[in-house]
Automatic annotation (TrEMBL):
PANTHER family registered for this protein in UniProt: PTHR35309, TOCOPHEROL CYCLASE (PTHR35309:SF4)
GO MF annotation, one: tocopherol cyclase activity
Signal sequence interval, chain numbering: none
InterPro entries registered for this protein in UniProt: Tocopherol_cyclase
One Pfam short name: Tocopherol_cycl
Name of this protein: Tocopherol cyclase
Length: 340
């Protein structure tokens, strides 16, 4: 069992490991996105660990590194003995076999990717304060939450080269992004999208590349004997983080999901945000159920998200297209849409 001190330390450091002393089932994974300067190479590398509840015919415990080729839509799941996993509960520092991830970069020793990527600029995490301990707000302090989420870096510049399936690829001048999840299992239904390649239009910038980053998710959240639809959205641009979340009393004006698009509009203290994401085919990733890691989530790094942010007076603060976007639409979306 985790001690109260360890739990509070974990709340202050969402980027660190939360599994020491945690019960079963438990999973934790870090999503490390690497995109070359010309955007021709887009990879997601996901190290993590899973501890099952002892049911089913799958291994009870395992470490892993997942790999997603965001251009071709291919994916791989590399399973490791749990003894090959190590992570710090005080900082972002993870090792799975010969693969090492920390705040300085990533060393990869995988059949698809080998080499060292460094982070040329500092990581930009979602701020952690006493009032708002990370992206989940006060929900991040609730011990019985099914799944916790953290943003380790909205964006940072890359340096170094990788052997991509035997061919050397320069990632210098590229862009990275890191987030993570931990808890008992993924939600029964959710939408997740993220992009830090936002090309602005209008607002005096035609076709300009901004420093903007977007992460947005809406999910079925089990709560006591029921459930609700919870949203966490962060849009960072112009040196400021704008938020639309369940805990800051933002409200959804529209959420629709069909075979081609996700349309989502919300309003709150930081104005109005309109998103329209194009759904495209992707690769299958493994996701944690309570019994095992199952290959069931289709994810792409080739989605496009139309973004429009306006203030309370209707003035456009940012309008653009999020490219190289990660997008997942999973599970019981009919139930998700029916919840309030």
């Amino acid at each position: 069992m985790r001690t109260p001190m360890a739990y509070l330390r974990g709340a202050r450091h969402p980027e660190a490991f939360h599994g020491r002393g945690a019960g079963r089932p438990f999973f934790e994974g870090w999503y490390v996105k690497l995109v070359s300067a010309d955007r021709a190479h887009r990879w997601a590398v996901i190290p993590g660990v899973f501890r099952g509840d002892g049911r089913g015919d799958m291994p009870a415990d395992e470490a892993f590194v997942q790999v997603l080729d965001g251009v071709a839509g291919r994916s791989w799941y590399h399973r490791f003995d749990p003894e090959e996993f190590a992570a710090s509960d005080r900082r972002f520092e993870v090792r799975v076999g010969g693969n090492i991830f920390d705040s300085d970069g990533a060393t990869l020793d995988l059949p698809q990717l080998r080499g060292r990527i460094s982070y040329a600029t500092a990581l930009q995490p979602w701020p952690v304060t006493l009032r708002e301990p990370g992206i989940m707000g006060w929900y991040g302090l609730v011990p019985f939450m099914e799944c916790f989420h953290g943003v380790v870096s909205f964006g940072h510049d890359l340096g170094g080269t990788l052997q991509v399936e035997g061919r050397e690829v320069d990632f210098g001048g590229g862009r990275g992004y890191i987030e993570k999840d931990w808890g008992q299992a993924f939600p029964a239904g959710y939408v997740w999208l993220a992009s830090n390649h936002i090309d602005a239009v209008g607002v005096g910038i035609v076709g300009g590349v901004t420093d903007a980053s977007l992460v947005a998710s809406v999910a079925i959240i089990p709560w006591l004997r029921g459930s609700f639809r919870g949203s966490i959205v962060g849009l960072r641009h112009g040196g400021r983080l704008y938020r639309w979340t369940t805990y800051n009393r933002s409200r959804e004006r529209r959420l629709t999901i069909d075979d081609d698009r996700v349309r989502w509009s919300m309003a709150g203290p930081d104005g109005r945000l309109d998103l329209e994401a194009e759904r495209v085919r992707g690769g299958l990733l493994h996701a944690p159920l309570r019994t095992a890691m199952h290959q069931r989530v289709e994810e792409t790094l080739d989605a496009r998200v139309m973004i429009r942010h306006t203030d309370a007076a209707g003035r456009v603060l940012l309008e653009g297209v999020g490219a190289c976007a990660g997008l997942e639409v999973f599970g019981d979306t009919t139930r998700l849409l029916a919840l309030r």
